[in-house]
Amino acid sequence: MATKIDVPGVALITGAASGIGRATAIAFAQAGCTKFALLDLNEGGLQETKGLVEQSVSATDISVGTYKCDVSSPESVVSAYTAAKEHFTRVDYSVHCAGIIVFGGPSADFPVEDFDRQNSINYRGLWLCCREAIKIMRSQPFDCEAYPDANISSVRAQRGAIVNISSGLALYAQPNCPAYCGAKAGVLALTRCDALDYVADRIRVNAILPGIIDSPMTNPSPEIRAWLESNPVQHTPMKRFGKPEEIADVAVFLAGNKASLVTGASWAVDGGLLAGYN
Ligand code: NAP
């Protein structure tokens, strides 16, 4: 059971149809949130996540909105965030999990279309989501005013919090992944910039660097799965795949008021991978 979040606010999650995004939605529900805007391209997966969120807690007042959204399209992102804001009146937490990985080869062999596609989702798409989240958050009252029963002190009050899912590959390389690694490094720089630019608005922005997590992304084929298992996973001090829930729990913490002094940070959640290998 996840630690309770102080403010049971509105949680918006991209990439919510699968893996880390799905686990994040469930973790927010277990932490006490009751209002969800779930975004993804995959409508069937979104409905499954909605069902799992509703089943994961006994609360009867759970409200889950699903929004088909292509994060690479500015129109689609604006439309989904606008619809979520209209329905729920505010967005307290925006967690950006949507992403893809394409193993296109080293740079000289890497197709331009694959490079552009990864950037348009993993970096530009995430930025589009941050942009809409910030527009909503900066114009909404502090959470201590919107949720007086939560008894949030003025020091810990916030208008909203953003958690960007980057990757350990922002800081170390894996063969054949130049576009993915570059986009994920860009997410860290963007996180720091937004954290700085919106600190006075009391919007916190942080990034998580997952290690190797057991999700559909790390199961594209038996060959890639076997390579991950026998190579990078074995270089991880904990020598195991992480679980999506282990990323989700950190996302809930970073979004909540208990992390009120944390902004612009890059949190590794990777079984020790960035610390070194043994
Ligand atoms: P996942 O299970 O494949 O989930 C990614 C989700 O993003 C899927 O539901 C996917 O939909 C959706 N998506 C893809 N393109 C989209 C678009 N244009 N617009 C909206 N949604 C889109 O992978 P995951 O492991 O949970 O990954 C979540 C995040 O963690 C990603 O940003 C990933 O880069 C990052 N990450 C993962 C790992 C890992 O080991 N798994 C490690 C480090 C970082 P479809 O299924 O329809 O494509």
UniProtKB/TrEMBL annotation:
Source organism superkingdom: Eukaryota
Keyword NADP: yes
Family in the record: Belongs to the short-chain dehydrogenases/reductases (SDR) family.
Protein's UniProt keywords contain Hydrolase: no
MF GO annotations: oxidoreductase activity, acting on the CH-OH group of donors, NAD or NADP as acceptor
SUPFAM superfamilies: NAD(P)-binding Rossmann-fold domains
Protein name: 3-oxoacyl-[acyl-carrier protein] reductase
InterPro entries: NAD(P)-bd_dom_sf, SDR_fam
PANTHER family: SHORT-CHAIN DEHYDROGENASE_REDUCTASE, SHORT-CHAIN DEHYDROGENASES/REDUCTASES FAMILY MEMBER
Sorted UniProt keywords: NADP
Organism from which the protein derives: Capronia coronata CBS 617.96
Classification of source organism: Eukaryota, Fungi, Dikarya, Ascomycota, Pezizomycotina
